[in-house]
Fold this sequence. Notes:
single chain, 2 domains, 10 helices
Amino acid sequence: xxxxxxxxxxxxxxxQPILQSVVAAVLWRRKIHRQFPxxxxxxxxxxxxxxxxxxxxxxxxxxxFWLFWIGEAVTAVLGxxxxxxxxxxxxxxxxxxxxxxxxxxxxxxxxxxxxSVVVAASNSFTRYPVIHAVTTLERSxxxxxxxxxxxxxxxxxxxxxxxxxxxxxxxxxxxxxxxxDLVLYALYSxxxxxxxxxxxxxxxxxxxxxxxxxxYSSLAAFARAAAAxxxxxxxxxxxxxxxxxxxxxxxxxxMFETMVERAFxxxxxxxxxxxxxxxxxxxxxxxxxxxxxxxxxxx
Length: 299
């Protein structure tokens, strides 16, 4: 039974770089790699990691340990960058929302790295603190991936995102694999499943995700769907734009300046009138012209 599961796990593992190579070739042929360069780099990196770890598997445990966990850390970082890339593609028509989300992603990445470092430092007394750090980073990225696919499922029709788009397919693959991995990790922590069962299901779900990417890369549509509620989406965009570049409120200073100018103008008019009255040689018409000239003067 153990030998059978071990052989099955090896077959599932070896199938991953083959499927990833096919997906990368399709992306290159359809020139989709220009639209999703981070996802394309993610696939190539996965192939390189397999090429580095598989030859030492079962032959050199030390090399395999470090290559495996370094590969897991690189995969987690690239997986997070792929999420950001999908986010930018989804919000491409909405510049304000996209500009607001970019710093949020950067700060979220910094927080996840900080948490991983803290976890590694707090477990420094154990034999391999790097395992705790990378595992924490992976779980954080998995949670964000699940949140992304839930967000797209709920708000896709408001943002004009078609479920046939490549960005939706990428998010769907990552989200399903991340949800499976998180559930299995929780079950394994509670000792409801064995490690071998967890590994088999995890590899199977990841192979299915790659198969989904292959289907989307071959059949995905490039055009966006029409937003279901365009006015609501435009209000979101306008609200974010106002938050980033707030319109200055009406100040009281111009109002006070106008009041002062009017006061000076009236005082000048009164002075001109009094001056005309005090000069008996002026006719009534000249006095009126003097008052009018005083009212036209800027004060």
